[in-house]
Protein 1
Amino acid sequence: MTAILLSIKPEFVARIFSGDKKFEFRKIIPSIQIDKIYIYATRPICAVVGCANVSGIIYGAPQDVWNKTKKYAGIGRDFFDSYFYGRARAHAYCLENVVKYNIPRSLSEFGISAAPQNFVYIKN
């Protein structure tokens, strides 16, 4: 199993936990297949608050990715378009089996000293 840790804004983390956001959009993804994502909520929370399994990745032209994910994107079209502006390719992790930790965990518990800009691999 290969896992990564992603930094995600708290407002989007809340939508992931509520089930309104079943896709996590990224401009850059790892070159190897990912099975699990650890969710790091950025300021003001600054903690690993949960995890999710990755059932697949949708990728392609931003318009195509939006059409496939918009029902459970958890973000508006304007935000999506702004995020992928000027990009020929968009990626969306398909999240399932989302788990919210009862007690948030520190980055140091994962052997990490700072939150990643894109992603960081996690050893299981």
Protein 2
Amino acid sequence: MAKKTVLVIFTGGTIGSDCEGKSISLSGASKKALIEKYREYAGDGVDFEILTPINILSENVQPADLKKLYDCVKEADISRCEGVIITHGTDTLCFTVNWFSQVFCSFPKPIVFVSALYPLSDRRSNGLKNFAGAVDFITQAKLGGVYCAFANDGENCKIHLGSRLVYPDEINGFYHSALGAHFAEIADGKVIYNSSPLLPAVNAVKENAATPCESALCDKIMLITMRSLLNFSVYDFDNVKPKAVIIELSHSGTVCTEGEALNFKLFANYCKACGVPVVLAPVMSRAGVYASMNEIPENVSIAYDLTIEMTIVKIMSALGAGLSADAYLNREIAFEKIPFPVV
């Protein structure tokens, strides 16, 4: 029986780094180390083709780097491959995965991102487990689209829909899907799909034929995260004016709307006078609305049923394509709309 082949695209990150003392830096030997560790763990039943379009720590990613990664996947010959693994740093993994879910929604084979919380040489690293989980998923699942394989401490490797991956937990860096509903997990080398009603059916994912969004990204946006006593009056667009402002709301979908300096409505009116669109997220369309959120100014859009990371991706993509900031918010491309949980 012919071996299966997986294309591995290395981009750097912690999974591509080594540790000297307390300093973590990129290592040229990491690609070989990861493949060797996998062969020691699972044997040589899979062949790997390797590309390295960039080699960076993910916190340093620039628009040009993402363009190189996009072009690398777009131009790769995948005719002999079962799928694609992309190694990536954990710090900005969530953005790249969500973005790829939109631009490669109709990719005919699985693209699976893997990363590591510690370098491979560190016994605490989950890099090998994530990589092995990605290989298992690719060689067993006959699905296209974008995914992330990630094992939190003490758990099986979870497979997340790229469009549902949310920002990691503070401090420990654990990754989850929106509402905790991962798409599948790897148990003893087998893919076990999650039957949660919060998820699309496997056949629906297999048959997804949505049109991808444009690949260009506009980085001239401002993200403001709601916290107590957040003073909106300190934002001044006289020198630099963003193309859009995204307000990451409190968990119940609220923001301060009383007083002067802390009043979001006054800030929204300032944005309107400056010609800057404002988008609020996340907001569940079927959830109750607090009185403080009534009478929102007309220049404000709401990103219903989307994670904040997906909202950022959609707005940057829309502006990059020369469209209005809210152009993609109501267009579902890769199952990114989060259903409100039924109690």
Protein 3
Amino acid sequence: MLRASICTIGDEILIGQIVDTNSSALSRALGSLGIKVSGMLSIGDDRDAILSNLSTLLRENDIVITTGGLGPTKDDITKGALYDLTGGAGWYEHPGQLEIIHRILRSRGLDVLDVNRAQALVPSSCEVIENKLGTAPVMAFRIAPGRFGHPCTLYALPGVPFEAVGAIPDVVSDIREHHRGELSEVITHRNVMTFGIAESALAKKIAPWEDALPSQVHLAYLPDPLVGVKLRLSIYGGEESSNERILDGEIAKLMDIIGENVYSKEEDSLEHAIGSILKAHGKTLSAAESCTGGEISHLITTVPGSSAYYLGSVTSYAIAVKESVLGVPPEVIKENGVVSSEVAKAMAEGVRKLTGSDYSVSTTGLAGPGGDEFNPEGTVWIAVCSAKETISKKFNFRNDRKRNIERFAASALFMLLNLLQKELEP
């Protein structure tokens, strides 16, 4: 099995100024080829650190992919370091990338400066994969066995996520072309998406099942407040159809244990699962948000094609808007308080009536800071509504404001998904 490592280069990652999303996208792409990703590393803009760390990675791996450090400013030193690392014997200007640089800058009304033109200058030891989305080219270095003890390939990608992710299909094609015959190893992954159960509680509940897994099945817990805990089952090697049968059998056993917490047996999100059901049945949705401030609407509309089923929302932060727009009776608020089951239900029913949607969801709560003995910080009432019923439920989370809002929204989507599954896909 081919082994690979991914290395991000740049001080901005180490100081937490930006979040590395490139590595996960690259890892998924390599895994789809049957390549084992043995590690991920982040290093700063330091020439000696780049040379030392990449030398080690190239000795231990067949493929190393770097992102970052290829920009036009003086702190972007990666290209020069790679020149030295690969025994460069001169530079050349790549005409295709230079043409792209001219086109991009002129389309923005910018002059092509010497520092921009220099981005098309690459070590003679590399092959260029043109970056059609940006000015820095992708460089592929084919390294002979004598340098690091075995033949290996080093790919250098720009760090801008839009450009790095955009280059992945070309890098994958290059790997297929140059490692044909070495990509026979099978890696089989299956995902089970759960929600409404904490990672620790989930691990305890499925411990007997996990302990009994066949030795070739590897299990990973991947928690995320927006999608729940993803369980990833993997088999490295073997034969695809046999692996699928083994994983199908194990997932069937798992469903008997935690079926009520599983919303998808594919890598999925709550909002995508909701959209699939609504679209399949020709139903519509609306939202009334208070404490989530539009987060539910944002998540729903990130799904392509959501305009087919999502009618809109009311962000009723003020009591006056709850009363005048959503039609929540003032006495309901006076008698029960804004953060209450009754108000959540009235909001859901009000926005459903206002928009004419088949289903609706609402939130009213305290994301923080602040609260009282009855409704402490992190309290939310969520309601979901259809023509048949309106259901409300109270949740309490103990996170900061941003994380509370995320968890409120995700919990609302899970409640909504449960209602849709009960009424539309029993």
